[in-house]
Amino acid sequence: MREDLEQQEQMQALKAYWELNRRWIISVFVALALGVSGFNGWKIFEANQKSKASRILSEIQENIDIQNFEITKKLIVELKNNYDDSLQRGLAGLMYAKALVADDQIEAAENELRSLLEHFDSGVSWLARIRLVGLLLDLRRPSEAAKLIPESIPPEWTALANDRKGDAFSALGKFDEAEKLWGKALKAYSLDSSQLVAANMVSKKLATLRSEVIDEK
Question: Which class is domain 153-217?
Answer without folding.
Answer: mainly alpha
